[in-house]
Amino acid sequence: MDERIVFSRVNSMLAEADYPLEIKDIADLEDFLNDAGNASMGLYDEIEQLYNQLLGYEDTAEDF
C-alpha cells in the first residue's frame, strides 16, 4: 500500500476522533502506536493494521 494513502487514511480517522496531532511519517505512526494511551482508542487496531500493511507485515485482499 502506498505510504501517502496510509497517512491520508490514518489522518482522516484521527481527525474524526478529534485526535490533536497529524501523522506525517512512519516515525509519527510508530509513536502513535507505541503510546499506551492510544491503545484504548476504538480505531487503534485499524491504524495498526494499516501500519502493518505499509511495512508489508500483512497481505490482505482488502483495498483501502
How much β-strand is present in the residues? under 5%
Mean pLDDT over all positions: 90
Measured on Cα atoms, how large is the radius of gyration?
11 Å
SS elements, strand count = 0
What is the overall number of helices? 3
Low-confidence stretches: none
Cα separation of the termini: 9 Å
Series of H and E elements? HHH
Shape: globular
For the sheet with most strands, the description reads: none
The percentage helix is 40-55%
Task: Offer a quick outline of the entry.
The chain is mainly alpha-helical.
Description:
This protein is mainly alpha-helical. 53% of the residues lie in helices and 0% in strands. It contains 3 helices and no strands. The chain has helices at residues 3-16, 26-34, 44-54. Helix 1 (3-16) packs antiparallel against helix 3 (44-54) and helix 2 (26-34) packs antiparallel against helix 3 (44-54). The N and C termini lie close together (9 Å). The mean pLDDT is 90.
What are the key terms here?
mainly alpha; single chain; 64 residues
Strands, helices and their partners?
Elements: H1 3-16, H2 26-34, H3 44-54
Helix pairs in contact: 1-3, 2-3
